[in-house]
Write a structure and sequence with these properties.
The complex is a heterodimer of chains A (about 120) and B (about 110). Chain A has about 120 residues and is mainly beta. Helices cover about 0% and strands about 50% of the residues of chain A. Chain A is globular, with a radius of gyration of 13 Å. In chain B, about 0% of the residues lie in helices and about 50% in strands. Classes of the chains: A mainly beta (about 120), B mainly beta (about 110).
Chain lengths: ~120, ~110
């Protein structure tokens, strides 16, 4: 158990619907990351937060994607008007911060299937 | 653009064989380097990491990796693999205080 928890673990949705994933990081971790992983690929960076501030957002993230971390604790990743290409595992991870504290610990992921 | 290359997409070995998985990165300057492992049906787990100091780092389960700065490489090794090492292995790189970028992974299959 890494301490990073994600919910839901699995989501099947119809194309065009909105979905939201939640991530609870390890409690003392300031940084929170979202990655996307498809079969046969490594995790692709989407966005990350330092406390409540969103530090960077990948160009992979279209306007349909939005992430928040309002109180610097849990985070949500929302996908609006889902498309079949959004089907993937969405991974959340957390770390203490930069420098030597930058080892990140992953949750078990949220599988999204868009039908 | 910053990138991480893993040369072997799929490796098949027999038990007790030696393993070396290649990893090259394109960052300049000071980097932190990682190998993560994903066993079937499980989440990503840290195998080992390099931040500074001795470029030969040892991780869990008998794995080690060597950072060669001049070659921008961080290859993973294990002298004698076991069936339980069957998994997918990901090399990852970060500049300090930045996000972590992953390679596409190497799927390792160990024959009993």
């Amino acid at each position: 158990d890494t301490g990073v928890s994600q919910d839901p673990r699995h989501k099947i949705t119809k194309r065009g619907q909105n979905v939201t994933f939640r991530c609870d990081p390890i409690s003392e971790h300031n940084r929170l990351y979202w990655y996307r992983q498809t079969l046969g690929q490594g995790p692709e960076f989407l966005t990350y937060f330092q406390n409540e501030a969103q530090l960077e957002k990948s160009r992979l993230l279209s306007d349909r994607f939005s992430a928040e971390r309002p109180k610097g604790s849990f985070s949500t990743l929302e996908i609006q008007r889902t498309e079949q290409g959004d089907s993937a595992m969405y991974l959340c991870a957390s770390s203490l911060g930069g420098g030597d504290g930058n080892t990140i610990y992953f949750g078990e992921g949220s599988w999204l299937t868009v039908v | 653009a910053q990138s991480v290359s893993q040369h072997n997409h799929h490796v098949i070995l027999s038990e007790a064989a030696s393993l070396e998985l290649g990893c090259n990165y394109s960052y300049g300057g000071t980097v932190n380097l990682f190998w993560y492992v994903q066993y079937p049906g499980q989440h990503l787990q840290l195998l080992l990491k390099y931040f500074s100091g001795d470029p030969l780092v040892k991780g869990i389960k008998g794995f080690e990796a060597e950072f060669i700065k001049s070659k921008f490489s961080f290859n993973l090794r294990k002298p004698s693999v076991q069936w339980s090492d069957t998994a997918e292995y990901f090399c990852a790189v970060t500049k300090r205080d930045d996000k972590i970028i992953f390679g596409k992974g190497t799927r390792l299959h160990i024959l009993p």
